[in-house]
Amino acid sequence: MKNFELFVNDIVSQWRSEKKILMESAGLSGSSNRENGDLAENYVLRKVEKLKPKYNGMKSTGSQTPSDIFAVARRNGYFHIMLIQVKSSTNKSGIYKLNENDKKVFDELAKFVKKQIGISEHLKNYRKSAILISTGYAGVYRNEKPVKHNLIESKGFKIFKRNTTNLDMEKINKIIALTHKL
Q: pTM of the full predicted structure?
């Protein structure tokens, strides 16, 4: 999808200007919180970019939206935009899981992305295309010795549809759920 990166940068900027930042008190503690979060996001991004078909992914600048990772791929008859929230910890049982309020804010972002597709100059050539936007979660454990990341849990939450009347959604729902397993 041409101009996807420019589109995501606009989404992040607009979302941030409206002060819709996902707030949560959990996560890694200490001064290296941001650095450890970035490393976990890089790990998940590498996994996303290894998916077939090939996903073009990028991290949200400074985690300014509920989605840490934005990715897009051309699938059979539609584009799939994947929004992923990454949480990590050095304690396997301490990885934050999104609560219902977090998921509602995430849904707001997906609806916002869907709306912006229809008005963004960056994606004007895709306004009539079938596009699915899915939200999901990736929980990452960081083993300190040796330093290694492991995906502990990953799953999709919801799918938001645009121009999808001719698609077999029963089949596609399964494909997207599998895709979020990374």
A: 0.88
Q: What's the CA gap between 134 and 56, in Å, rounded? A: 15
Residue 100 has pLDDT above 70, yes or no: yes
Distance CA 98, CA 139 (A): 10
In the chain, the number of structural domains is 1
Please report the pLDDT score of residue 60 as a whole number: 86
Confidence of residue 63 (pLDDT cuts 50, 70, 90): low
Three-state secondary-structure class, residue 70: strand
Q: In what order do the strands lie in the sheet with 56-59?
A: 56-59, 69-75, 78-89, 131-144, 147-162
Domain that holds residue 96: 4-179
